[in-house]
# Entry
Amino acid sequence: MGYTSFCLVFLSALFFQVWGNRSFVIDFDNNCFKKDGQCFRYISGSIHYFRIPAEYWRDRLMKMYMTGLNAIQVYVPWNMHEPLPGVYDFKGDRDLEHFLDLSNELGLLVIMRPGPYICAEWDNGGLPPWLLNKKDIALRTSDPDYLNAVDAWMSVLLPKLRPRLYNNGGNIISVQVENEYGSFMACDYNYMRHLEVKFRTYLGDQIVLFTTDGNTENELKCGTLQGLYATVDFGPVPNATKAFEALRKIQPKGPLVNSEFYTGWLDYWGEEHSTSSAEQVSQGLLDVLDTGANVNMYMFIGGTNFGYWNGADFKSTYKPITTSYDYDAPLTEAGDPTDKLIALRAVISQYLPVPEGPIPPATQKYDYGFVALKKVGKLLDLLDIFSPEPPFVTQYPITFEDIKQYYGFVLYRTRLIWDIPVATLLSSSPNGIHDRAYVLINGTFCGVLERDHVMEINITGNAGEWLDVVVENTGRLNFGAYFNDFKGIVSNMTLGDDLLTDWLVYPLNLDGPIAQGWPQATHFAAVSQTESYTGPAFYGGTFRIAVTGDTFIKLTKWTKGQVWINGFNLGRYWPARGPQITLYVPEGLLSSTTYNNITVLELEGAPAMSVVQFIDKPILNGTVRGV
# Structure
């Protein structure tokens, strides 16, 4: 035998010796999972790496481990990793493999939820919006165009997971196929079967594949499939045994699993901040564990919808989700332990050994005080920076997707072809603006149109003046039957009785120039005493600090817009509607050696005293003002 052959045999024998006895399987006879031949129960928590800066991953995972969790549950957002067809990004805050390696180092098992649809209150439920380039595509079905895109994505993602499966020496013990499919109207079993085959092809026959659905017979009917292990989700309930009854009807044997035990809930703009008590959640967890079930707490830490990543729901009307995804979880948006975490740790300690020692403390928060901002200029005066190419010319409005501008803002422009001396209604259909439009005549701000809420405003103007409509995508639907959520002016607009035509459409790339350092002080406008502070405009400023730490930016008396710190898009602010008043600023964005830059796009109305404040506590439960 040659040296090379001997090495291969030796390594193979060593691999078998080290990993050959590792197994994670379902024992139907004993109603349990078996890990390495022994009955095993997991108590897990959900964490979204894509909502937490990478420099904080270890801190958050360590806090979860010290709470007594033996596993974590992880979604993978397709749209973040494949922003354009065939363009993949797994770097920095998107480095999934590094995140999984950290969890393995800390001794945490992983329950993977790779989608392709994930919900997660994330834009489009994690599905990339470029799928909508084909307007009649049927998402989450056996539509060949959709399946081809899914197959291409899974051919990239799943091979990254295979070496990290528990049977292969990693820490992934199970993998979910799709997500809450029983809540989707299609009920396409061929689609689910296609996914099962694809997952088995890449991950092998040994991995536990499962589904998750609500705990009703109707949801389980369309969400489950023979060959995939069924689990359910529900929060604290009076009778946990009863909550599992629908699952037991379709799956009489095997371990019980609550894949999403809700520790809190999400927030919508314009509604009260959602909370649940530590007593209620800890008692609910105790009741679930008393049934002998496995459980995953959703969320254990929520995190932040930085940039434009928040999703939206449709419950009689369109409801965008806030930038904060704090979720009233055991760990706050900034990763701080709460009373709820302490109460849950006490419950967990009755069922699993909890690591000795204290839970790592909250990170240092700083009150950096006030920073004055100067007006940089109106958005419409900066098109050479944010939309340097010629606009799209079209008779009727086209969508964001038509021009491959998937997030943020698009400007629609047409000329008034007659004088409008008296107030005349500019209107859209009830569902014609997706999602919020800022209307200007000859550069003067006239008002806002809003999806499902404000369909018309009165305007006046002169023939030849520009009618500008800046449309904001405030988040694609992430749950329910209404997918294919196109953005922009999605139906025609009328002025009085006349249809508006002959549009110029400008895609607005705000993040590119700002990430590259715009604006410098030389761009700041000289503002007169009579300068208007209404309508879409940029404001900027700088500040220095002696030491860096987490902080929260508060925009008192500002209305609605977007904030960047040192070129990083923190997300949307909307204190005029609430409940969220502050935005979380992680320490890693700040510098103690150079000036820090703040850039604000205010869309409606900035205060005459253009000041922001950095404080050391979040305000997520501010006054709510509805539509």
